[in-house]
Amino acid sequence: MLKLEHVTKYYGDFKAVDDLSFEVDNGEIFGLLGVNGAGKTTTFRMIMGLLDKSSGSITLDGKKIDYSVTDNIGFLTEERSLLTKLTVKEQAIYFGALKGMSDEDILSRLDYLLDKFGIMEYKDKKIKELSKGNQQKIQFITAILNEPKLLILDEPFSGLDPFNIELFKSEILDLSKKGSIIIFSSHRMEHVELFCKKLVILVNGKTVLKGNIKDIKESYMKKNIIVKGDIDLDKLKEIKGVEKVIEKSDEYDITISSKDVVKDVFKFISKYPDITKFVVEEPSLNEIFISKVGESYEK
């Protein structure tokens, strides 16, 4: 288990991270989210022991993270961190050696991952000769070469097409199933929802939202209902709790104040025989993120 308890970090008088606490179990994928400058990168660096915290506690399986455990950590940075004059093979050997792996284990694992990602032919090519998407694959491969106990992924899908996102997703889920603790950060909320069950959202170093995504969505009162069919639009808008109705070609997007309004809308539309669709949608994580970040900046 990774555990952060009341972690605070100052740069001089500036408080970059303010009393941050969360824990991530083995095999769990956890979302650490926030806008640029929210404190995510500082938190990553403190977790890995690259920065000293000002106060609080960070432990992995009950022990302080230091150089005795860094061989079991993988980190994919948002920025490219590859040595572009090296070949893919040389890059892997370099990173693998830093993690205490033998050349035999490095090359065996490298071949497996290159084959899985469909880029075996690039093994002896220099990094600078690869496309941005393939460079991202190599960066990801070097981050997971050692099958890390703790893996931090900062914008892992940058520059990838949907097909390659699925390849990354498959490997991330495999690592999770094997017990890896994974911290996932992205500005694309739909990517976060692919993996994460729990999350923390930071604004200016402070936690503004924390918990299980399912519970967060349930507690976020605004809901949407999608209805397809012929209905009396004016009467629909008169229902108490219906806040807005947007007409989209052959269906209606209905915003309601709370889930309690669902039964009233359903009772109303059930009178119409031509209804072919009635779907209650929870707010997207993107909507919740924008709302919580906006609230924090308005205070």
Count of beta strands? 14
Could you name the CATH class of the largest domain? Alpha Beta
CATH superfamily placement of the largest domain: P-loop containing nucleotide triphosphate hydrolases
Tally of domains: 2
- What is the mean pLDDT? 93
Distance between the termini: 34 Å
Approximately how much beta-strand content do the residues carry? Answer: 25-35%
Give the strand order, joined by hyphens, for the main sheet. 6-7-8-3-9-10
- Stretches with pLDDT under 50, minimum 5 residues: none
- Computed over alpha carbons, the radius of gyration is 23 Å
Report the biggest beta sheet as strand number plus sense, adding barrel if it closes: 6 strands, mixed
Q: What share of the residues lie within helices?
A: 25-40%
Under CATH, the topology of the largest domain is which?
Rossmann fold
The H/E string reads EEEHEEEHHHEHEHEEHEHEEHEH
Helices, by number, come to 10
Could you please describe the fold and organization of this structure?
The structure is a single chain. With 299 residues, the protein is α/β, with parallel strands linked by helices. The protein folds into two domains: 2-217, Rossmann fold, CATH 3.40.50; 221-281, Alpha-Beta Plaits, CATH 3.30.70. It is 35% helix and 29% strand. The chain has helices at 40-47, 88-98, 103-116, 132-144, 162-177, 189-195, 213-219, 233-238, 262-269, 285-298, and strands at 2-11, 14-24, 29-34, 55-60, 63-64, 73-76, 150-154, 181-185, 198-203, 206-212, 223-228, 242-248, 251-256, 277-281. The strands form three sheets. It has a six-stranded mixed β-sheet with strand order 6-7-8-3-9-10. Strand 9 and strand 10 form a beta hairpin. Helix 2 crosses helix 3 and helix 2 packs parallel to helix 4. The model has no long low-confidence stretch (mean pLDDT 93).
